[in-house]
Design goal:
This protein is 37% helix and 23% strand. It is of the alpha/beta class. The strands form five sheets. An eight-stranded antiparallel sheet has the order 3-2-4-1-10-9-11-15, covered by helices on one side. A seven-stranded antiparallel sheet has the order 5-6-7-8-12-13-14. Strand 7 and strand 8 form a beta hairpin. Helix 3 crosses helix 4 and helix 14 packs antiparallel against helix 15. It is globular and about 80 Å long. The structure holds 6-O-phosphono-alpha-D-glucopyranose.
Length: 611
Amino acid sequence: MCGIVAYIGSRPAFPVILKGLKRLEYRGYDSSGIALFGEEVACFKRKGRVAELEAWTESVTATAHVGIGHTRWATHGEPSDANAHPHTSNSGRLTLVHNGIIENYASLKQELIAKGYTFKSETDTEVLVNFIEEIQQKNESTLEEAMRIALKRVVGAYVIIVMEEGFPERLIAARKGSPLVIGVGEGEHFLASDASPIIEYTKRVIYVNDYELAIISKDEIILKNLGNEPITPYIQQLDMELAQIEKGGYDHFMLKEIFDQPASLTDCLRGRLDMENLSLTLKGVEDHLSVFTQAKRIVIVACGTSWHAGLVAEYMIETLCRIPVEVEYASEFRYRNPVIGPGDVIIAISQSGETADTLVAIERAKEQGAFIFGVVNAVGSSIARLSHSGAYTHAGPEIGVASTKAFTAQLTVLAMMAMKIGKEKGTLSSDEYNRYLAELAQIPAKVEKTLATHEQVKAVAAYYAEARDFLFLGRGYNFPVALEGALKLKEISYIHAEGYPAAEMKHGPIALVDENLPVLFIATQDAYYEKIVSNIQEIKARKGKVIAVVTEGDTLISSMADHVLEVPAVDELLAPLLSVLPTQLLSYYIGVLRGLDVDKPRNLAKSVTVE
Ligand code: G6P
């Protein structure tokens, strides 16, 4: 987490960096700061959102053409002015911003304290800037050399950008484990955690790799590895428009992104689903078909909402491909010495492509000989680059911290994978395959139809906005949707919510049921319909309030539930693509009714680049 931005060129750096920080706030928003290199280095930093930094610096007329900025998600030390970045070394010569965690900071700090260094903050970053300074002074070396030496001793993840007094014409950046993009302009360069602060100025970008150092002046970019060998920069053209990262008339990014879904799913299917020829093209799968058809098992690793998409994929792949699937929290998988080897396929699912746990999980699996397939939204991200193959979800930039359109795009890619592999493997008949393709083709229109019911969802939200707890229940393909619905509600509204398989309710959660507990059933018509009807009865018998997401025209559940939210009929394999939508809207409206910042919920960040 944390977002970093830097600028070097001929424009005033301050507004460029400030605007960039606002675009990166989804990565962390508990404090922010900017250091500018004019006559000398001036640093402005403050606890709170970037808007507070902006208000506080309103009277600052900064003409400097070089600067670095940071928006923080606290790891070491609470959010405070002192812990905000940038951090400056004891001599004042070096100023640095950092995204990541220096794991051995405590021992490095002891070393530095023994040498007389003092610290104003509790951060690992202030240790790092002083550690670099100490090496530079001791060896009488250049900053670049000192960084190379220092970074070889540092354990952890980082992107850093450093300014050095006396050298206003250049910035030095380095990366390991956290993302860094360089925007290549005419006589100016931009650095940022992702392309969103850059897109307005240039579409030419370089993605910096791990263990690389970038020495940036306004006219030149030099890339080197930590062994001081030059690397030829690879400039790519960004396929992203500014409008995609703006709110476009909606009150919040989250709402915009919910309503983006008919378009984002159309984009996801574009060039892949061909209804004229009844075919699916998924190059990343086709290029390695035998890997999938002969896979002994598939292990899905992911975090958060992406993990929920993985749970749905487990049902899809086991049903259509008859390959055993395990779904793992990346954070658990990476630490428990899993039994992995050749013949195993790992599918890593990630919106950002930067989640630290997922990234390390696939590194470990790759070392053990597994084949890695990335289902990633952010093009060019670390997970995409580390994978042997993959399929982008093409949902477009997702800015709201709570994931919505990325989830449905993940489900769509995973469904296409299951169909493609099942067909090739022979576990899915041609007739069934064609039927699924036809169902898939109708999804964007059905999503649009579902979203058109938003006023009904809003009315239900008004009814339950003050609830203290919420239970989400589903079975089969809709069980992961229950988990996702509960996650969304708790992140956006801070209402305690739990998701459960509907049948498991009897083994504990039913004890919570009374006339105050809203229970949301995902109860679309599928193989488990009658079972879930019984579960609804069980809740009603205990006076619980029932909200049910049902298939259009369902009269039976409508007669039992307190509120129903309808979705169009669809095959159960694709049901989560529709049934999740009312839960996204419900969380959004409840969050708004409770007066909360739904785009930036407390304590969260969108891109979790720390363990
Ligand atoms: C954070 C975000 C979630 C996301 C999760 C995994 O917790 O707030 O929305 O699902 O990280 O992120 P990824 O980018 O790997 O999908």
